[in-house]
Structures are given as structure tokens and as C-alpha cells.
Amino acid sequence: MTYRFQQPQVTQAVAIGAASAASTNPFGAQTWAIRVVATGNCHINIGQAPVATATSAYVAANQKPEYIRVNPGDKIAVIQDGSATGNVFVTELSQ
Question: Is the pLDDT of residue 11 over 60?
Fold first, then answer.
């Protein structure tokens, strides 16, 4: 399936730490996908009130961006893998 997205919109940074941390703001009304890059190994979870755990989706540090389908109003939650630290940068994309 092919998706066409407009230019990147808002970018949020979420700190990677030992406890699950969610993005401050929910994704906008026109957001249907996000681009995710991480500076530390981590796990992510997406939803209305997400909590990331060690069994959530894994994102490797300093790799190519992950493109993930989301719903408007969702948030992303992040937790470290092992003792990794850094940030996850989440850029909203609209159709």
C-alpha cells in the first residue's frame, strides 16, 4: 500500500528513560502517520493513553526513520531498552 503525505508538520521530542513517558501533546486532527527516530534504543507504544513497556515495539538508535500509521488524537509513549538514554523525535505527517 502506498501513502502520500504532505510536508512534515509538528515535531515533538520525548526523553528516553527508565519509566514510560508520553508525548506532551496529542497528534493533530490532520495527522495520519508519524516519522519516528531515536537517539537511544527504546520501546514505543501508541494510543489515546499509551504506556510503553519492555515488550512494546522496539526502535533501534540512530537508524533510518520508522513510519507508523496513527490516528488523530493519539500520543506516543517511550521507555528505554536496557540502560539507554536519549530522545525519540516524533514528526507528524498528514495526508
Answer: yes
